[in-house]
Write a structure and sequence with these properties.
4-stranded antiparallel beta sheet, alpha/beta, 48% helix, globular, single chain, 4-stranded parallel beta sheet
Length: 312
């Protein structure tokens, strides 16, 4: 049976998100390993918050990496088979890189913490923002972003995540994001939601962070993946470490093409797609993208056991 794993990124975090895996020793051990490496109690943060600390990019990024790796390790320890393809939504791509053997967990923790720091430094807190727009097509949102950026001249707004048909996330300066939300409503958007993210990811405001990431990634040892990864910045597979590092840098400043990523997976005779991480954010998106795929969410220990029975 061909199946795919997908790993969530920022936006899937919530207080208490790891409590449903607390009975799995390997999950707690993975958190302890990460906490020792980064000198931070991520288990307490995941389960107790508070939300404002949890949602800081510098904390959220390593936390989501740790969560995805911990749940995947639990999957393997319980006898779960290797997926045919994997992908990660934005930050989740680093989880995919660890799972596929491209980089070590220790190196990934280091680079993700660095990534969160340089992203936070690129745009001061409350200066940038991101919002989800529901019910407009991609071209309408692109036009809104172009018009607002042209009129402002000092502030920019760009599409950041093509999450599913009818759901696009915009990013840029906070005031431009708010104007984009209002204009989207005027154009017929069903809903607009300001997201609890402390930096505007996947837009041109991340240029300085991308330069720093490029230099930092030069120090990271990478190998060819042992499980194919569909990268969401260009919807391609990469085996060369230079190409992988290059796409990780570009990822910071260009949109996440999630709709295309899932559609690409769906054309590979894959029958199931499982979200390996806390929550069901990606599962909800995937259901709207590829109707031919059966969706599974590894939301707790019981769900992992059930998924193994289905996919083994």
């Amino acid at each position: 049976m061909k199946f795919s794993f997908v790993f969530p990124g920022q936006g899937s975090q919530s207080v208490g998100m790891m409590k449903r895996y607390a009975d799995l020793t390997i999950v707690q051990d993975t958190f302890s390993e990460a906490s020792d490496i980064l000198s931070n109690d991520f288990w307490a943060m995941a389960n107790n918050g508070p939300p404002d600390i949890l949602n800081l990019t510098t904390n959220t990024q390593p936390l989501m990496l740790i969560s995805g790796v911990a749940i995947y390790r639990a999957w393997k320890s319980l006898g779960g088979p290797d997926p045919t393809f994997i992908a990660g939504h934005s930050l989740g791509e680093y989880t995919a890189l660890v799972v596929s053997g491209v980089m070590s967990f220790k190196d990934a923790l280091s680079i993700v913490q660095f990534r969160g720091n340089v992203m936070q430094q690129a745009v001061p807190e409350k200066v940038g923002g991101m919002a989800a727009i529901l019910g407009l097509d991609d071209e309408a949102i692109k036009t809104i972003c172009i018009n607002i950026t042209r009129k402002s001249k000092k502030e920019l707004l760009e599409p950041a995540n093509y999450n599913s048909p009818g759901q696009v996330v915009i990013a840029g300066h906070k005031n431009a994001v708010l104007r984009g939300m209002e204009l989207a409503k005027q154009k017929g958007a069903k809903m607009t939601v300001l997201l609890p993210l402390s930096v505007p990811s996947h837009c041109s405001l991340m240029a300085s962070a991308a330069k720093k990431m490029s230099k930092r990634l030069e120090t990271i040892k990478m190998q060819a993946p042992n499980i194919p990864i569909i990268h969401n910045a260009d919807v391609k597979q990469h085996k060369n470490s230079i190409d992988i590092k290059d796409i990780l840098v570009k990822q910071l400043c260009i949109p996440v093409r999630w709709t295309e990523t899932i559609n690409s997976i769906s054309t590979e005779n894959v029958t199931h797609i499982a979200e390996c991480g806390p929550g069901k954010v990606l599962t909800g998106l995937n259901k709207r993208i590829a109707k031919n795929l059966k969706n599974i969410s590894l939301t707790d220990t019981e769900a992992i056991h059930q998924a193994i029975d289905i996919l083994k």
